[in-house]
Amino acid sequence: MKRSQSRYVCQACGDSFLRWEGQCRACGAWNTLVETLVREASPAVHRRSPPASNSAPVPLANLSEADVARIPVGIGELDRVLGGGLVPGSLVLVGGEPGIGKSTLLLQAAAGISRAGPVLYATGEESGAQVRLRAARLGLLDGAAGAAVTVLAESSVARILESARAARPTALVVDSIQTATVDELEGPAGSVGQVRESALRYMELAKGDGIAVLLVGHVTKEGSLAGPKTLEHLVDAVLSIEGDRSGALRLVRATKNRFGSTEEVGVLEMGEAGLREVPDPARAFLGEHASAEPGSVVGATLEGSRALLVEVQALVAPTGYGTPRRTAIGLDPGRLALLVAVLGRRAGIGLGSHDVYANLAGGLAADDPGLDLAVAIALASTFRDLPVAAGTVAIAEIGLLGELRSVSGLERRVREAARLGFTRAIVPPARASGPASPGITVVAARTLREALDDALGPRDG
Ligand SMILES: Nc1ncnc2c1ncn2[C@@H]1O[C@H](COP(=O)(O)OP(=O)(O)OP(=O)(O)O)[C@@H](O)[C@H]1O
Ligand SMILES: [Mg+2]
Ligand SMILES: [Zn+2]
């Protein structure tokens, strides 16, 4: 095969070199050289869209609505995150930590998509036998999917593309982008140059041949997808699977989506038979919050258009020696430190010589100031060893002065809590209070101190 030329291009200044070096000789930046294929006509960086056959300008009103047709993936929660299904010819990147369930989700999706048309599942990670084993466990062998999903164990991008162009499937799954390589590049599988070049080629396939391409991407330790930025702007959608691997719940979130909102999340549950939808996502993260234990408080977070009730758990213990620890799981550590400080200064709960732990149940990770009050009450509750009455939900942001602030979608959160049988909501003072939700008493507290009095009872003396 004719070898195209590869160059090492600096991602900072764009200068290119024949060999890899740690530092760019043009601009002095470190570790910015990425192996890149040089095409005859134009440099790879600028070569984005397919050749010029239909690239004449078209009036806005005459543009076809090709992207209205969507292929249902068959997993309702995944369809929701995609914005109503998979768009034909789109390029979707699905990321997640090792073992979180990427292959499981995509094999199930492949089976779902195969109801609309054939799917090619290319895997460089596993053998055909391994995929078959999983398919059997997921119950996908017997149905129509057994014939409509074809598996290709292959780690050459060229051969995957060749197969796809010959078979013309509705969708191509590539598991994973880090294991398949482009022959013309010398860099190892998974290197930034390899990942970016193969993504470009899959994009050509997606846009040129109208085949939807789903790429699996491993998330590195630092929490980014390999070849991160270049890949994220290239693809149409980036989905990430989140959750605590030791638990069953998984969240699917779109961090980018050209065909839908990036705010929707899907909630799924991992089991023997794969990922299943949970009956009521709003209560999935409530944990076993049946009995009232000190340190456990229910809050409500808003994910897209959906309110999720979540159990916040906290534990404080006197620090043995050294600096007190602050450990946040699923919560922003900076936010936790701030709440600890406000509790000390504004509510008389001094945790300066205590280790503090706070986490969200079920492996949920949320960056939502609306959870502030639940976290603060949980800390006060464990510190004073007093439980919060069952059926209570706390929803507010806390300011530096200890004042409670309103949060977006407060009404929706309260309504959802009422639906799930909560009887008391501690919230910031109503501005223009909307229609009351039946069955739930809404208590407005102006300050953290007032909220604590309501949740735990006034302090003696
Ligand atoms: N027999 C089983 N019963 C229940 N759950 C299982 C079973 N086998 C595997 N799992 C679940 O599936 C997960 C692995 O899923 P999967 O292989 O899809 O993950 P992945 O993200 O593709 O991993 P990798 O990064 O290794 O490719 C396990 O962590 C486990 O939770
Ligand atoms: Mg896998
Ligand atoms: Zn440079």
Structure in words:
With 461 residues, the protein is α/β, with parallel strands linked by helices. A hairpin with a 2-residue loop joins strand 13 and strand 14 (306-318). It is globular and about 75 Å long. It has helices at residues 76-82, 102-113, 128-137, 145-148, 157-167, 192-209, 228-234, 333-347, 372-384, 410-419, 448-456; strands at 5-10, 16-17, 33-38, 91-96, 119-123, 149-153, 171-175, 212-218, 237-243, 249-257, 265-271, 274-277, 296-303, 306-318, 326-329, 354-360, 392-394, 397-398, 404-405, 424-427, 441-444. The chain contains 11 helices and 21 strands. The chain starts with a strand and ends in a 5-residue tail after the last helix. Helix 5 packs parallel to helix 6 (192-209), helix 6 (192-209) runs parallel beside helix 7 (228-234) and helix 8 (333-347) crosses helix 9. The strands form 5 sheets. The protein has a 9-stranded mixed β-sheet, with helices on both faces. Residues 41-48 have low confidence and may be disordered. Bound molecules: adenosine-5'-triphosphate, magnesium ion and zinc ion. Zinc ion (ZN) binds next to loops.
